[in-house]
């Protein structure tokens, strides 16, 4: 599970980070100290739970939460606000549907380590349930390690000499000694299709498609800078899934 802590006070951030690390070794903890820094991380990662300070030097934690809620896939993600003023939470509960809030400073009562564990445990359980229902394939990656590849975590796959480069949302790039056809046959997802002789694409993560030539398009992704090819031989299926019509043909 990935947790993003957004807190500009370094001491408070360190205190809360240490409490989380002491209790969990299966939580990937990411930290940001500003509005701008947090948005960069959110755009690059797939966060499961947010701890957000209400007051940041370059913006409001409420505004960050509103941006999160507007992003595809983040409509129901857990948001916990950090504040020294409880009255600030009325708007958060009404308009953003935050899960809970923590009162600063963290080292005095009524705040406790148990509060943190209670909150994280809820989302850990939900994360496990969600993963149990996700389709996956067991593949062998470099160094003969067996890896559980969740199908909905795939952004795209590129075939390079004798192996597949698999770009994923949560774990970056992995390499597997498989043919493109073999990997595609293992995947159970209506959104993942071949788009070129060298590429497989997950249409869920497509941001836009640019036409380059009569028989070639460039595919751009949400939160990923790499661009891949879409050839005319595979274009009909991709456009059908996306609901595109003559505008791209």
Describe this structure as you would to a colleague:
This is Stage 0 sporulation protein A homolog. Keywords: Activator, Cytoplasm, Phosphoprotein, Two-component regulatory system. Required for high-level post-exponential phase expression of a series of secreted proteins. This protein has 249 residues and is an alpha/beta fold. The protein has two domains: 2-132, Response regulator (Rossmann fold); 136-248, Beta Barrel (OB fold (Dihydrolipoamide Acetyltransferase, E2P)). 32% of the residues lie in helices and 36% in strands. It has seven helices and 17 strands. It has helices at residues 10-23, 35-44, 61-70, 89-96, 113-132, 180-186, 232-242; strands at 2-6, 28-32, 49-53, 55-56, 59-60, 78-83, 100-103, 136-141, 145-150, 154-160, 163-168, 173-176, 192-196, 199-202, 206-213, 216-221, 224-231. The strands form five sheets. Strands 2-1-3-6-7 form a five-stranded parallel β-sheet, with helices on both faces. Strands 12-11-10-14-13 form a five-stranded antiparallel β-sheet. Strand 6, helix 4 (89-96) and strand 7 form a beta-alpha-beta unit. It is globular and about 60 Å long. It starts with a strand and ends in a 7-residue tail after the last helix.
